[in-house]
Design a protein that fits this description.
This protein is an alpha+beta fold and 365 residues long. Helix content is 38%, strand content 22%.
Length: 365
């Protein structure tokens, strides 16, 4: 199942396709007893997709068979044992993908000539992705992090490794001389190469960066690096050869502190915007501003969800889930629209926005 939504991947997903491009969405659950319903819901929504394909006169028999086959293959690839909060299946003639999201999605089936990507975009923004580079004298490992985990990432040719001549880590530890491994010229070249490789990754996928390693390694990277100079340091050795759980445990306190600082900064910006009358609050007001490209900073409470429907002049009013003309993922639509127009999107703790009712924006004008 896919997790990493890079700009190039998103561009590819948005490419027009021969009709029908099928998007199947369903919420999933991480824990018992809620996850017991997931297999049944998944089978039912895929069956609904097949039913719509069968009844659509614009879909030829040959294409219908192809897309149904793609849906079956995608269904076989789903691993609900490692489910997160949402699942998206894309299927079109000759291709399929399965995406696991750390954000819930509404249950729906869409047939179009493009895939429905707004939920992927919103989930990535909510996950607040970051990089972790773990360095040692003989290995530099890259990790991709999110809300509650890190996983090893092989972008940029990582992990980088080198063979150390006559390097006896156990003996050096016994005599207290581990930092000497970071004084030789070979290590300097190795860490400079790691910095260059990381620079390539950051240009393609800019994110906050944390670096773990012995203090001597962090100091050397500061000296020889360029891309790593703005990184947050976590003085913890051994993680270049470590497990994802060990890396997450090491960086989690700093990630949490950074999230608190970010939320505090958002609160200050919103308060200032109120005073300048450059402030929008509530789903209808923010949606109008987002459509006009006026939102500079969008703040959304992490678990804010609302179902709406359109009325005259494009305004939104509350609606019940399942209503014929309801829009259950309007929050994700707003997030995607704001990102498209260059806004900074921040997800903040529930309740932080107070009378703004879960969503607010700082306006450009």
């Amino acid at each position: 199942m896919e997790h990493d939504l890079s700009p190039s991947t998103l561009s590819e997903l948005r490419r027009p396709r021969p009709y029908p491009a099928v998007s199947v969405l369903t919420p999933t659950h991480r824990r018992e007893p809620e996850n017991a319903q997931d297999p049944v819901r998944l089978r039912n929504v895929v069956a609904e997709a097949k039913k719509q394909l069968e009844s659509d006169p614009a879909v030829s028999r040959e294409r219908r068979s192809d897309v149904v086959r793609q849906l079956d293959q995608a269904l076989a690839e789903v691993d609900l044992a490692h489910a997160e909060d949402g699942l998206v299946i894309f299927a079109a003639p000759g291709e399929h993908q399965v995406w696991s999201l750390a954000r819930s999605v509404p249950e729906r089936v869409v047939l179009s000539d493009t895939f429905l990507t707004r939920n992927l975009v919103s989930a990535q923004a909510a996950e607040r992705p970051f990089w972790v580079l773990s360095v040692s004298p003989d290995r530099a490992t890259l990790w991709s992090g999110g809300i509650d985990r890190v996983v090893e990432d092989h972008s940029g040719g990582f992990p980088l490794t080198r063979t150390l001549d006559n390097f006896d880590a156990e003996r050096q530890e016994q005599i207290g001389d581990i930092p000497s491994a970071f004084r030789d010229e070979g290590t300097r070249h190795f860490l400079r190469d790691a910095d260059a490789a990381l620079g390539t990754v950051l240009r393609q996928h800019p994110r906050p960066l944390y670096i773990t390693g012995e203090q001597a390694a962090l100091s050397l990277l500061d000296e020889v690096g360029g891309a790593t100079k703005e990184a947050m340091h976590v003085p913890h050795g051994g993680l270049a050869h470590g497990t994802p759980d060990a890396v997450w445990h090491a960086v989690r306190p700093m990630v949490a502190a950074e999230a608190r600082r970010s939320s505090d900064a958002v609160a200050r910006e919103l308060e200032t915007a109120r005073g300048r009358k450059a402030f929008a609050a509530g789903v209808d007001e923010v949606w109008q501003s987002a459509r006009e490209g006026r939102v500079r900073l969008l703040a959304v409470e992490e678990n804010y969800r609302v179902t709406v429907r359109d009325i005259l002049d494009g305004h939104l009013i509350p609606a019940d889930t399942g209503d014929l003309d309801s829009r259950e993922d309007i929050v994700d639509e707003i997030v995607e629209q704001c990102l498209e127009t260059g806004a900074d999107v921040r997800f903040v703790p529930d309740g932080m926005l107070g009378d703004a009712s879960g969503i607010a924006g700082v306006l450009r004008y």
